[in-house]
Amino acid sequence: xxxxxxxxxxxxxxxxxxxxxxxxxxxxxxxxxxxxxxxxxxxxxxxxxxxxxxxxxxxxxxxxxxxxxxxxxxxxxxxxxxxxxxxxxxxxxxxxxxxxxxxxxxxxxxxxxxxxxxxxxxxxxxxxxxxxxxxxxxxxxxxxxxxxxxxxxxxxxxxxxxxxxxxxxxxxxxxxxxxxxxxxxxxxxxxxxxxxxxxxxxxxxxxxxxxxxxxxxxxxxxxxxxxxxxxxxxxxxxxxxxxxxxxxxxxxxxxxxxxxxxxxxxxxxxxxxxxxxxxxxxxxxxxxxxxxxxxxxxxxxxxxxxxxxxxxxxxxxxxxxxxxxxxxxxxxxxxxxxxxxxxxxxxxxxxxxxxxxxxxxxxxxxxxxxxxxxxxxxxxxxxxxxxxxxxxxxxxxxxxxxxxxxxxxxxxxxxxxxxxxxxxxxxxxxxxxxxxxxxxxxxx
Length: 444
Description:
By secondary structure, the chain is α/β, with parallel strands linked by helices. It has three domains: 3-76, Elongation Factor Tu (Ef-tu), domain 3; 79-353, Rossmann fold (3-Layer(aba) Sandwich), CATH 3.40.50; 364-440. It is built from eleven helices and 19 strands. The chain has helices spanning 133-138, 157-167, 187-200, 223-236, 249-262, 276-284, 313-321, 330-334, 364-388, 395-412, 422-433; strands spanning 3-6, 10-12, 15-19, 29-33, 39-47, 51-56, 69-72, 78-80, 89-91, 108-110, 121-122, 149-152, 176-185, 206-212, 241-247, 288-290, 296-305, 324-327, 347-348. The strands form three sheets. Strands 9, 11, 12, 13, 14, 15, 16, 17, 18 and 19 form a ten-stranded mixed β-sheet that branches. Strands 1-7-4-5-6-3-2 form a seven-stranded antiparallel β-sheet, with no helix packed on it. A two-stranded antiparallel ribbon has the order 8-10. A hairpin with a 5-residue loop joins β16 (288-290) and β17 (296-305). α9 (364-388) packs across α10 (395-412) and α10 (395-412) runs antiparallel to α11 (422-433). It starts with a strand and ends in an 11-residue tail after the last helix.
């Protein structure tokens, strides 16, 4: 039952305040009708005895105190769900923007989904082949995992994102879909992704939600929730293997901080709200596998580290919640290496459970261990060569220098158009390790 009230008490940024009606409830969907007939959606984020606070996702420009009707919907914000969402493009609130019309479906669900109950979780197994050697070989993505990408300002992580979406697959027999949430992006970035998906033919298996930099910042709070609601339907109702990519979670966190400040909440680290950890967890923990269900949700949140600071609250808290991280290197990026993945700072905590015989290859773990060990020693030798000069290094150290250079140029550096299967990746790693003396191969 819809209940309407006329007039609002106050406006502060994207927040409006009304006298608390008896029938109102927390997280209830609200429709605000302006004098010119325009309708905007919001939801109730705070209720006290006298005043209720409503978050308006399209912003409050053009509103005045006396001429706005507030319509309470009696339910949380929800979206219609259908398999026909595949190949479609929506805004950050889940409304179609591709000109193909509304989604006709009897299935409608609240976007405020819950984290998967740990008791019901199935342990992640089986790897997802991204076609990218540094990820597949050294920090393997496991079905049902949460594996974030930590980038930096000016590092083009969009190319890596595009490559993952274009190349990822589980197997030809599985129903595979990708849900892509874009937050705070420039128009050119959104157009780059849409054009790439159409030209490569992968759009038919992608559901894209986009919130642009000139869209209301408050709408960014909705985007990951809407994207994950869609992913849950595809995975647990339609038994699909779903890969969710959310970029940029820093833009999401900035929007969360803005709302917190307007509400007058006491800030925590760097001005972010004290509940940033639990809020991020409510997004990340919606990924996984459920016992008795054939589908899965694998999540790759991407975030930009302010000032390349991995201890900043956003990457720091993300690292606590997720199962590893892929860290992009500014030094490798400046060398022209793509993707510029810093393998020594990156890891996948579930890798050991999804590789080996029956999944990838029997020798996968040993090859990965040897690569990490050898490339770690490369960094020590490079530091030594800056002091002594490369000519004064031992023959073994010179071979480590050669290995490091070729490993970066041939293994990590892959370009955006080359896809390698897991056997090609591991064979390439073994070929590069042959540069080193046999007695150095203590992990193989």
